[in-house]
Amino acid sequence: MADEDGQEKTEDATPRKLEQAYEKGQTPRSRDLVAVSMLIIGGIGMLLYVEQIYRAFVTAFEMGFTFDREKIFDDSAMMRALLQAAYAAGKSLLPLFATLAVVAIAASVASGGLHVSSHPLMFKFEKLNPLSGIKRMFSLQSLVELIKSIMKVSLVGFTAWLVVKAQFAEYLGLIDEPIQQAMLHSISMVAWAFVWLSLSLALVAAIDVPYQNWQFRKQLRMTKQEVKDEYKDSEGKPEIKAKQRQRAREMAFAGMMAEVPKADVVITNPTHFAVALRYDPTKGGAPKLVAKGADLIAEQIKRVAIANNVVILAAPPLARSIFYHTKLFKEIPSGLYVAVAQVLAYVYHLKRYQKGQGPNPGAMPDVDVPNNLRR
Question: pLDDT tier at 3 (50, 70, 90 boundaries)?
Answer without folding.
Answer: low
